[in-house]
Amino acid sequence: VLSHTDLKPAMVSAERCRQAICDTVICNDDNEALQISASFGVASSTQCGYQAEKIVRQADKYLYQAKGQGRNQVVSILNTVTV
């Protein structure tokens, strides 16, 4: 949750988080590097009103849309944004 943040800056923040997660090297017990990724759904109060439950529900919808589109991306009403 990013208070006092419009949708586009929230998308940029989510994309930075996604990229940081993807850039993190994690090794298994055999010291083999594992590829990890992250998907984010972003919604805003200007889109959904100021009801927290509604905002979370919309963000969850976009999260599942991101996963359905191949994962490892940020999705909102603006669709996918890259930094």
From TrEMBL:
Return the SUPFAM superfamilies for the record. Answer: Nucleotide cyclase
Q: Name the domain of life.
A: Bacteria
Query: What would you give as a GO molecular function for this chain, any one?
Result: diguanylate cyclase activity
Pfam families recorded: GGDEF
Annotated keywords: Nucleotidyltransferase, Transferase
List where this protein forms a coiled coil.
Answer: none
EC number(s) reported in the record = 2.7.7.65
Entry keyword annotation includes ATP-binding:
no
NCBIfam families xrefs = GGDEF
What is the name of this protein? diguanylate cyclase
Q: What is the lineage of its organism?
A: Bacteria, Pseudomonadati, Pseudomonadota, Alphaproteobacteria, Hyphomicrobiales
